[in-house]
């Protein structure tokens, strides 16, 4: 799978903090929202998907606050609420009345929170191993999530710690190149991120328990995507979402971890492209 060669960074200035984004294509707006692993940011997580999805859509790739080129924001009210507020600022600044949201992990939880708060601004939802749910039988927090949450603890970040996180993000470790590891480490150790790790203090915040929210009131066509071997947010976290979101369908990729959009990129692009065009 060929990675996207890159896109220029753009910025929205806000009193709450600068927001970094990139975009490509024309048509209906689709916003790609990345996960919360160490060194995550928009382009890094979606470089295998932007080209395919921008063929028929205006694709906007967001760096969530505290990640990549976007400034840190206060998360005391729960991280999903903070990130959803930034997403609203982005859409307003770009003049987007509505958009479809494609969110992985932290980005999936952000998409759910935004759709609950602003249902009229959302067309369709694509949620890949989204945060905010509850597993039916798996031990939780999972080993993968614990490695993410403790990355900045103790002696601080290291390449060895990052390697251990990435080991549990994917089913096939050979898909992770040395260049990607080094890129994510540079991003994970940016000064603003070191001083304010975005996930710190968020593990047990009650406002992040989206499974308790009014999911049955979400009117949007919703595609849940999970890797069968997800060791960060396990597959049985899909069941409560599938039961409670009225228009939700579930697609499971075998031999796939938490990064479905990365490990199964070609199939993911076709599946999501067709769903968005329906």
Automatic annotation (TrEMBL):
Keywords: Hydrolase. Residues 29-264 form the AB hydrolase-1 domain. SUPFAM superfamilies: alpha/beta-Hydrolases. GO terms for cellular component: membrane. GO terms for molecular function: hydrolase activity. InterPro entries: AB_hydrolase_1, AB_hydrolase_fold, AB_hydrolase_sf, Epox_hydrolase-like. Pfam families: Abhydrolase_1. The keyword Hydrolase applies. This is 4,5:9,10-diseco-3-hydroxy-5,9,17-trioxoandrosta-1(10),2-diene-4-oate hydrolase. It comes from Aliidongia dinghuensis. The gene is hsaD.
């Amino acid at each position: 799978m060929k990675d996207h060669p890159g896109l220029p960074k753009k910025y929205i200035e806000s009193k709450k903090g600068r927001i970094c984004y990139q975009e490509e294509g024309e048509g209906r707006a689709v916003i790609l929202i990345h996960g919360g692993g160490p060194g995550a940011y928009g382009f890094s997580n979606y470089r295998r998907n932007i080209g395919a999805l921008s063929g028929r859509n205006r694709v906007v790739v967001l760096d969530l606050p505290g990640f990549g080129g976007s400034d840190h924001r206060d998360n005391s009210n729960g991280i999903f609420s903070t990130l959803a507020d930034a997403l609203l600022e982005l859409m307003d600044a770009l003049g987007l009345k509505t958009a479809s949201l494609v969110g992985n992990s932290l980005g999936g939880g952000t998409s759910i929170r935004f759709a609950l708060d602003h249902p009229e601004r959302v067309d369709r939802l694509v949620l890949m191993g989204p945060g905010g749910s509850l597993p039916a039988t798996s031990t939780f927090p999972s080993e993968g999530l614990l490695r993410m949450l403790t990355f900045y603890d103790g002696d601080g970040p290291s390449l060895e710690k990052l390697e251990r996180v990435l080991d549990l993000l994917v089913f096939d470790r050979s898909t992770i190149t040395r260049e990607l590891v080094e890129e994510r480490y540079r991003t994970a150790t940016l000064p603003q991120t070191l001083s304010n790790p975005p996930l710190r203090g968020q593990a047990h915040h009650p406002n992040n328990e989206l499974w308790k929210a009014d999911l049955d009131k979400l009117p949007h066509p919703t595609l849940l995507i999970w890797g069968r071997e997800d060791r960060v947010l396990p597959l049985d976290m899909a069941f409560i979402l599938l039961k409670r979101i009225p228009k939700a369908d579930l697609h499971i990729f075998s031999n796939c971890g938490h990064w479905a959009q990365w490990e199964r990129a070609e199939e993911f692009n076709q599946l999501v492209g067709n769903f968005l065009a329906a």
